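Teaching note: in complex prediction, the entire set of molecules is handled at once rather than each chain in isolation. The prompt given to students was simply: 'Predict the structure of this complex.' The entities are:
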Amino acid sequence: MSEDSKKAIRLHKEIQHKFSPETYDLACHAALPVALSTELLHLIRINFCRQCSFTSEVDLLMSSLCHEIDENLYEVKYSVRDILLGNLLNKYSKHRITEVAALLLLYIERYSPWNDQDRLERAQELTALNFLYPERAENWYQKVKEEYSDSIEHEWFVAVYDELKRRYNIFHPHISIKDTPFKFDIEPKSGISNVPKTDINEWDLLIVDDRDAWRELIKEILDDKYNCDSANSYEEAIHKLKRRRYKIICANLLIESINNGRGLIRFLNIYHPEIPVILITGYTNLDRIQSNYKNIRSILYKGSDDFIDNLENVISTLLMLDYPEEKKDQEYLTEKNYSKIESEITSLPKKGKILVVDDQQGWRELLEDILTENDEYYVQTAGNLNEAIELLESRSFDLATIDMRLVDASPYNIDGMKVLEEAKKQQPLIKAIILTGYPDIEQKHKALNYYKADGYYEKAPDGKPFDIDEFKQVIYELLWPSESQKTKVFISCTAEDYKIAKTLYDDLKKAGITPWLDREDLLPGQNWRETIPRIIKASSYFLLIISENSVSKRGYIKKEQKIALEQLDELPSSAIFIIPARIDNAEPVDEILQNLHWANLSNYEQGLKQILKTIKSDKSL
Amino acid sequence: MNKSEKTAPPFIWALFTQLRRYRFPLVPTDYQALKQALCTGFGWSSHEELCDLCCTLWAKTKYEKEIIRSLFEQLTEQFDFEDWNLESWPSITLQKENQNRKSKNPTPYKKADPIRMSKAPSRLPDISHDGVNLKKYHHFVLLLQHPLTEREITQIWRRLRQPVRQGPPIELDIERTIARRCHTGIVSEIVLVPRRRNTAKLLLLIDRQGSMTPFHRFVENVSATIQSACKIENVEVYYFHNVPAEGADDAILNIFSNEMFPVLDKILHKIVPLSKGYIFNDPNLLSPKSVKEVLKNHADKAAVVLISDGGAARGKYNTKRLLNTIAFFKAVRTYTTRYVWLNPLPQTYWNYENNNTAAQIARHIPMCPLDQSGMYGAVNVLRSQLYVVEKPI
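The expected output is the structure of the full assembly:
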């Protein structure tokens, strides 16, 4: 079978899936004319397909089956016309085809729609004649060919002459319909697709789409050339990704819901950034998301004319370019490796994974938005108990915010408690916050004491609006207690004074205090410029080591001082925050620092005692 | 009169049934009426007179007459008048009169030439249609059928009224006359008031080209009917492509950079009225008029109707288009609160299940399908009846 006819079969299959049977019927009729005007299509419908509604005309003209070649002029894709006409012939009879041809001729006679387009008009007339009086069409053609041979090469009908001749033969009564070339084998090639592929671990492509028709269509198109696997849901896709290895993922954006499709892309972006993703979608205007997910290599629109060609091109290009050799040698991800990698990622410092459970789309989106706004957390959302449980089973989370009532309308439920119970059972380390719009003392008590929830927040505390920043702070403190609660003393020093700072660090630790020293506590890969200010702000004390070095030297220590002074500004005047500790005779330049009483570390033991006394006098410790 | 069965031209029944397919409100009595008229001698002198007779009995408007005429021509062309011809009139009593008429009207019926415009000379010979017999296909309908008839459109749009008593006092006010006479106790002068006039103003904005192409004829028909038959004082029609005004500041969309199908609810209050750009006076979009001017002159206290598929035909989602549309309607709002969107596609293309621009627009702006009940609802909106949109602009 030639490449063209293969394409035609694909497109034909595509429109068969897409159209209603009535619209498909209309398409079969509309395949006869060389080109369609909206009026002609309308006349075809009201004469032959009266069971179709007016909108079928629109569906047909706007589909990928039709090209808009001029104003109010559409062409049914040349390659598919034979198949459509063949089906028309099979369904009705030869008589119906001549009727359509007659209508075309009557339409031209009556309206002269293409009066200014000679060639098109001739082509249409010849097409119609060819079905009604084939010998006349042939005679005219031969005559013109002899007498005007020099000027016919630009004629439209010459291009379709072979086609016309073939059709003439097909509809000629001597040939029985069964033998016509229209009998394309358009059934799926069952032999090929049923080959068991379970032993293969190396797959080219994973197609993820929840619509069976599209999944099968794409699979069928690509099955000849590539090893294709398919999944019909987010869960199935993840399941397969855990066991098998793919070179390319071809995913529909809207699997069941937007979130799920996007969830898959996020998942891939985090766990399999090396696998290129081709996003298929029925909607346009998505180019903006491409920049957010580096793994998306291409976005293809299902509706576009050359969807299939594009898909093939993109896949072949990606397979050539984006699959470096070393990746092939990499051990593919077994279940074990997978969880190892997952735990490695979990241990990465700065991104907490949060599950948001809320039945209200608005709240889900709000929470997702505020939690992802600075790229701080990975957020997954669930709208009901089952979704939440599925997510809890398949992924690990650091924190869950759970809406108490998962059905607001009466009879409401408090499935949130079940989610909480399940979360704590499945993932004992998870922090859980109950969020509710319907505060209830009893439930609060139960949630906090019985189910060990870590917080209970009202969506509208005392009628006041929900405080986003406060809520974020709560989450932050729950997730990073090491920074927010235990870090009590921030030690600020220059590199030259590091030795003494380290001694101090160890001694403070021994005394049960949590010190923080950049060289000790800053994790590799952490952005210190962002981390340090946050830690200073979260610290109870700022221990500033003053020396000749620190006073004279310019550097980040000055910046640290500045942040600490700002912090001091916000505290009541009696509060102690900055503890200057002098190791030599240097005096700080800053006036405020001069006014603070300092600990003298030139006598280390005594100085340490002073510092400990100050810190321990704070009863909150 | 029994002969009428035989003598009625055979194509008249075909004409009658076809007209019914065009949703002419014809019943068998109407057919009977024509036959009676034929029996009493009307309509025999020429094809034209027969056609006139059909028009007189069956057509109520000019448009309907046009349909009858074209169908009539089509049918007479296709029929072989073997057992019927004009001379076969049975009644002798009227023969004379007929002949008189014929002599008055010497040009006998001539088949109207098919409308053929002059062609640019071509070197190739025309494809001859001689001997191509299409008569057996006479039952084909070659007139376009719109989803709504002129009659239906007229009935609906007549409801758009703003009656104001204007002009010279010529109508008797009985109540006030009686009241005055009772009050004065004498036969005082009668009270006259001006006649009520419909002062409704309508600004019609029509989307053209692109995905609207299949609707052109239908929408043209709707717009022409509203203009001619609906007794609205002032109907202004302007045309545009996709959106009437373009160039809303899309910087406010930046907060949605993460979202694929941003819902503009959050920034709705930030969108400023937009009346930049041009709309057109003619359906081919050639003579531009500033949107600002048009709104200023024609939208003030008027009813504004916009006919467009809003992107529902192709089912795409275009945030910018949505933004521009909302901004434009905000500008309309500064002149009038009576506006409505008519979508030529049925509601299933743009209801909440869809994720296209039109579905989003329908959340902010009253949108009705361009069918009978939809237009009825639209006129209700224009009559300031309550219409709840999900997120008013």
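Point out the following to students. The beta strands of chain B are 163-172, 192-198, 201-207, 234-240, 278-280, 288-290, 303-307, 339-343, 367-369. Chain B touches chain A through 48 residues (CB under 8 Å).
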